[in-house]
Amino acid sequence: MIRKLTLTIAAMIGLLLLQAPLFAASGSFKEMIYDPGILPPIDSLLKVKVGDTAPGFTLPAVSGKVISLQDYRGKKIVVLSFIPAAWTPVCSDQWPGYNIVESMFAKYDATLLGLSVDNIPTLFSWTGQMGKLWFEVLSDFWPHGQTANSYGILRSTGVSERCLVIIDKKGIIRYINVNDINQRPPLETLIKELEKISGKK
Amino acid sequence: MKNNRFFKPFLAAVVFGSLLFLCGCSGSRQAVDKPDKAPIPAAGEQLPAMTLTAPENALTRTYLGLQNDAGQTISPGEIGGDILLIEIFSMYCPYCQHEAPTVNELYSLIQSDTKLAARIKMIGIGIGNSAFEVGIFRDKYSVAFPLFADSDYTIYKDIGQVRTPFFIAIHNRGEKKNQIFYAKRGSFGNPEDFLQILLDLAAR
Description:
The structure holds two protein chains of two kinds.
Chain A: H1 2-18, E1 58-60, E2 66-68, E3 77-82, H2 89-98, H3 102-107, E4 110-116, H4 120-128, E5 136-139, H5 146-151, E6 162-167, E7 173-179, H6 187-198
Parallel strand pairs in A: 3-4, 4-5
Antiparallel strand pairs in A: 1-2, 3-6, 6-7
Chain B: H1 2-26, H2 29-33, E1 52-53, H3 58-64, E2 73-74, E3 83-89, H4 94-111, H5 114-119, E4 120-127, H6 131-141, E5 147-150, H7 154-158, E6 166-171, E7 180-185, H8 191-203
Parallel strand pairs in B: 3-4, 4-5
Antiparallel strand pairs in B: 1-2, 3-6, 6-7
Helix pairs in contact in B: 4-8
């Protein structure tokens, strides 16, 4: 009985310590990042799968443009990078990394669209701290999270999952990664998938 | 039996209390991290022990003065030179990206003087970056000094989870070996001025 309880306590302590993720905090954001703490890794149910036609959307971008997924049909492979929220730890470290691999996306004839349920003013301020981004950042703010919801990645708290979706030139979903919201998805996996889908080495 | 009757409720209370405490902590990353957080490196302190992997490139190993084969584990103390300047960076950090040309300028400045080149060695450690990601940063900014990956955040945790970029300079020879004489977050400013600051601090 005592041994069982001791083991249970030890296991729980171990689990709680293991789940504390780390993120590389860039000095760029100084003390402006809000730390939401440890969140449930995934909190939604996908409504799409690989092989499906990607749900379309038309959303306003920070650049002032209005972007539709349809715009890229037959022209570019599209990578959708949904991030949960501006001014939070992992998200603030994800897109700046993508910002220095434009040439890799170009190599695979792909483009990147960043999506968040934040509104345009918030995204404008936040992405402004990252320097000039080469990709469009879209606001899925209103109707709130409608695009995220159409993919089945809107969490119960109203933010999206940290999710990567690759859509080929025919508009078909070829890759989905609903990542642990507390961690940054590995870049090499995304690049390998682009290599595979584009058929380019 | 009698003791056990008292002990079981007591143990249950301890378990319940522990769970309440742990659940409370898990709601906040800071609360979980703080007790384990290593101190941020500071001048006068010793550089925490860290393990790096000897680079694949033979020229890089020569620059570092390593006798080790590629892939072997090394410590900063095995690197040649009197002074070792370490840049803690991340490929994902916009500030590090912005500072990369300035850091490269410092490296070129050091390398342009044979004596300084032998005396001061520079390395970068990409926290939370895989070798692939470190390679992207190296290629993007044409970084000529060796960069290492800290993909599992081991080094990051040992140096107090500093914000990036963060620069640490240590004595790497003599009786002060491994002692930090410069540790600061953010831009070091003008490379020429910074080099002079480093040399002055090292001479103290």
